[in-house]
Write a structure and sequence with these properties.
There is one protein chain. The chain is α/β, with parallel strands linked by helices and 434 residues long. The protein has two domains: 183 residues, Alpha-Beta Complex (2-enoyl-CoA Hydratase, Chain A, domain 1); 232 residues, 3-Layer(aba) Sandwich (Rossmann fold). Helix content is 29%, strand content 24%. It contains 14 helices and 20 strands. Strands 3-19-15-16-17-18 form a six-stranded parallel beta sheet, with helices on both faces. It has a six-stranded mixed beta sheet with strand order 6-5-4-9-12-13, with helices on both faces. It has a two-stranded antiparallel sheet with strand order 1-2. β5, α3 and β6 form a beta-alpha-beta unit. The longest helix has 16 residues. The radius of gyration is 22 Å and the shape is globular. The two termini are 31 Å apart.
């Protein structure tokens, strides 16, 4: 074995011993960008000189109803670092606490607890401000607005329709379906009815194209922007760009579309990695998307273009909260059998297969199952995690799970070519193959 490969993981490091005949042809790290030295000053500057619209406030917010859309606890956005500053800015420009409401943009995720809201916003920072969890399954809590040009029926949280001003707080980051998160994603899918989310999620998804990471305007992005703007309310974005630690390194504020595109440019400069020859083996860690299995698996999609079809993905997933709120399939095939079946079916028939075997699957489960099965068909996947239950791989059937990294690497040495080429992604949740 060669000298071990060092991967940052959890609060320390993991050492992976590679076979001596393997050759590392790329170690892909985000461009080094420092965190903001003065977060309050950077945010004030971004609020005073917004992108594509007038500044937020200028003393004219008295009596205005304001909804603040905030991403949920599964996201790595350190909202507690800047929510109090946004709140202070609103209050200093005439807003009253009793006219504000924080709406947790859950999409179809589970409700947040009071303790989680404190963690997300900062304990004590939102005293006197009402907060609510979005319920995507209660149509009575939505306002129906019509249909997008791509056919999505739009129903959105009533707090948005009742507001004079909507402020979206979130992060611009690589995203499998959207290309990049942030912007109006806080509204759709974050604060939409589950049918709206389902229709929007499948925009542009096909056998030929099921991964849009790194694209500025995917079909889902364009559809959700059209849907959110049907509110005909003033919407102001407060988005952050983060480095791989993850620290705040830039605020992009203003028009929710134009500010988002500026954020995309910043994220590309930090996170996009040019990849020439795909490798036989890709080794990827989920950093910093470490909340749960749903978030952790994103690293595999982010680096998919850097591994050959039929090649091996070796993934280290932190998954601090284990499986999270993903639903375990009632039944599944063993991984080897499933992969063989999917390769026989071919990519064109996988979505139909998903709908047959997972009747009644939830919104995200349908997309994730399709994405995961396309990925299983394309590549073998090995996973190691200290936090996932040891039978997770068996219960989902999507990857082979190992109890130790040593066992995983021994199996990898048997699967891959003797002189395998390797690409390494220590922060695969943030970086992506451009």
């Amino acid at each position: 074995m060669t000298s071990p490969l060092t991967i940052p993981f959890e609060s320390g490091e993991v050492l992976l011993a590679l076979p001596p005949s393997w050759r590392v042809i790329g170690e892909h790290r985000a461009r080094s960008v420092p965190g903001l030295a003065d977060v309050p000053a950077a945010l004030r500057a971004a609020l005073e000189r917004p992108i594509g619209c007038d500044p937020l406030g200028r003393g004219d917010l008295e009596g205005r109803k304001i909804a603040l859309a905030v991403d949920d606890i599964s996201r790595p956005t350190p909202t507690h670092r800047f929510f109090p500053l946004v709140l202070e800015h609103l209050l200093s420009n005439g807003a009253r606490r009793e006219d504000l409401v924080v709406v947790n943009a859950l999409g179809v995720h589970r409700p947040m607890t009071a303790a989680e809201v404190d963690t997300k916003l900062g304990a004590g920072t939102h005293d006197g401000v009402r907060w609510v969890n979005h319920d995507a399954f209660d149509l009575r809590e939505q306002v129906q607005l019509g249909r997008t040009s791509r056919g999505t029926d739009v129903a959105l949280n009533r707090h948005l329709a009742e507001a004079d001003l909507i402020v979206c707080l979130g992060a611009v980051e690589p995203h499998l379906l959207l290309g990049f998160g942030g912007g109006l994603k806080m509204i759709v899918p974050g604060l939409a009815h589950h049918r709206t989310i389902a229709q929007n999620h499948m925009q542009g998804v096909s056998a030929a194209r099921f991964n849009y990471v790194g694209e500025e305007t995917s079909p889902m992005r364009l559809d959700l922007e059209e849907a959110a703007l049907m509110l005909r309310r003033r919407i102001f974005a407060v988005n952050v760009v983060m480095n791989d630690r993850p620290e705040l390194c830039r605020f992009v504020c203003g028009d929710p579309v134009l500010a988002h595109r500026e954020g995309v440019r910043s994220v590309r400069e930090i996170a996009a990695q040019e990849v020439g020859e795909p490798a036989d083996v890709v080794i990827v860690a989920s950093n910093p998307m470490n909340a749960d299995l749903r978030q952790g698996m994103k690293c595999i999609g982010n680096v998919q273009r850097s591994v050959k079809e039929g090649g091996l993905v070796v993934a280290l997933l932190e998954c601090r909260h284990g499986i999270g709120d993903l639903k375990v399939p009632a039944r599944t095939l063993p991984h080897g059998v499933l992969r063989g079946l999917l390769r026989v079916l071919g990519k064109e028939r996988i979505l139909g297969f998903v709908d047959r075997v997972q009747r009644g699957a939830g919104v995200e489960e349908r997309f994730l199952a399709h994405f995961s099965m396309q990925t299983v068909r394309r590549n073998e996947m090995y996973v190691w995690s200290r936090k996932l239950p040891p039978d997770t791989g068996e219960r989902f059937g999507l990857f082979r799970q190992f109890r130790t990294v040593e066992e995983m690497m021994r199996r990898a040495a048997r699967f891959a070519p003797r002189r395998a080429t390797v690409r390494v992604w220590p922060h695969g949740g943030m970086t992506y193959a451009g």
